[in-house]
Automatic annotation (TrEMBL):
Protein name (database record): Nudix hydrolase domain-containing protein
Superkingdom of source: Bacteria
SUPFAM superfamilies in the cross-refs: Nudix
UniProt cross-references to Gene3D superfamilies, sorted A to Z: Nucleoside Triphosphate Pyrophosphohydrolase
Organism: Streptococcus pyogenes serotype M3 (strain ATCC BAA-595 / MGAS315)
Amino acid sequence: MTVDASQIQLWGEIDYLVQSSRTIHCFVGQLVVDDWKSIQPNEEVDKVFIVPLRQLLFTDPVYYRLEATPIETTDFPFDRIRNGKYYQFSQEYRSIPFYENLEETIWGMTAQFTKCLTDILNDESIAKKNPSDIEKSKGR
């Protein structure tokens, strides 16, 4: 994005995802800009938008299940495995989070990292409460 490094206040890394071909690290910070609408996204960013943090803190994502089925390729050595092309590969399922009912949908890895951030922030706000308030919130 068209943001100078001096306009970024880095708070820290909150999580990372390890995939077969890459590792993605998520960092949280604050952009110090006069007008967020002036930010020009690069080719990796589809759109820049804002969502009030309070709204995210009180919104849980909806998870949708996606089935991943192996696709046959011409160079896979089916002749080396039992039942060849008819081998019963296990079905893979992924649970994909979506933040719905926002002006823009947040989904996939962005939603996973957003959920991680809101969990951290919600846990920290609970930890700052008076212990008797925590007991009351647990119904004791």
